[in-house]
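Morning. Coffee machine broken again, so started the prediction first thing and wrote up yesterday's gels while waiting. Chain of 244 residues, entered below exactly as on the submission form.
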Amino acid sequence: MDQNVERLQVRVWRGNANGGGYRSYEVPAQQSQTVLDVVTWIQQNAEPTLTYRFACRVGMCGSCAMMVNGEPRWTCRTHVKKVLDGRQLEIAPLRNLPVIKDLATDMAAFFDKWTRAEGVFHPTATRADAIAPIVPDDPMRVLANEAIECINCAVCYAACDTVAANPEYLGPAALNRAWTLQNDERDSAYAGRLSAVSSGDGCFNCHSHQSCMTYCPNELNPTASIAGLKRLSAASFFKGGRGR
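Came back before lunch.
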């Protein structure tokens, strides 16, 4: 490595589900360098067995999410100079998820919670029926649109202290998805979904710390979605469990 090139001191978590630890690397600093660029340089030049995920590299897919200096971020969209602590950079797998190897985590539990929260569309019509019109300014449609741009990157899940304290908690992403469907008039699972999200590990566990909103790369507000589910659940209780 050229001794005249400025170098970053990078600590990367290496290991698997059975344990591991941080290893240190020196990486040449570059202009407009992203954290994903750093990880890629290490894999290509210093540690060919380093395991991590990425796909689009342009801030669209969310698959490159990792912990960067203790905070969950999309590494392809995080510029090194904005997160450096001096010349130090620490990169780890997403919090609150089991590690497969190095920086790659097992997302199965994250998606299982979507199923538990009934985060799946249940149509009221069949393929033979006419497509139902969507009125853009309908109040329910507006609420759904405010939360619908989630791409399942799990940054909010990694940021959530409630998930850290209670691994069974459904988490902000699953509950946010449930909120969008509760505001979709074409969906037929309103009552069942409301029961699912108000269960012991559901929306009432949220302490409204708003870490999910703070770190969401798409600037969504899962805390507001969860608050909406709390309101619907409370209203349903006082109405005797009736639907919309």
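The chain has two domains: 7-105, 108-238. Going to sketch it on the whiteboard this afternoon.
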